[in-house]
């Protein structure tokens, strides 16, 4: 479960994000909100209600899907999210996660792979790789690998280091 200080940090971060986004939404036209963080689903839902715009949620995983009911802060917060804070369109990758979301009364679509592969393809094709390589100090023939995720045990960044260490020398 979450350590007590981690719960407080997540709450403080989500409150800060809510007030920042609320001010930003008042000054800008927004057609929709995408939320994929358990800490920010409530923010997206409240902003959606205040501004009458749809919310798309992606729930990559919820550890509470692997177990029976528990009296822990993490389990409680995850189930609150599933019950009250998910938006108009909910996607996930795992059927166990979909079952938790459905049990809370939400419609969910199970999708394999990337939620919006076309948008990622367009972003990839429009990027200036040569300029990015120069900016970050890489030569044109360097192989560049990256890790995208929070540096927390749940995301298992140590495994990324182990995988990179096991790659052939050319990497």
Question: What does the model show?
Answer:
- This protein is of the alpha/beta class and 171 residues long.
- The protein contains 7 helices and 4 strands; from the N terminus they run αβαβαβαβααα.
- It has a 4-stranded parallel beta sheet.
- The longest helix has 24 residues, at 4-27.
- It is globular, with a radius of gyration of 19 Å.
Give a brief outline of the structure.
The chain has helices spanning 4-27, 41-51, 73-85, 95-103, 117-126, 129-136, 157-166; strands at 33-35, 55-59, 89-92, 109-110.
Walk me through the topology:
Blueprint (H helix, E strand, L loop, with lengths): L3 H24 L5 E3 L5 H11 L3 E5 L13 H13 L3 E4 L2 H9 L5 E2 L6 H10 L2 H8 L20 H10 L5
Parallel strand pairs: 1-2, 2-3, 3-4
Helix pairs in contact: 1-2
Question: What Rg do the Cα atoms give?
Answer: 19 Å
**Tally of DSSP helical segments:** 7
Biggest β-sheet description? 4 strands, parallel
Mean pLDDT: 82
Label the overall shape.
globular
Helix content: 40-55%
Q: Walk across the major sheet and give the strand order.
A: 1-2-3-4
Key terms:
globular; 7 helices; alpha/beta; 171 residues; 8% strand
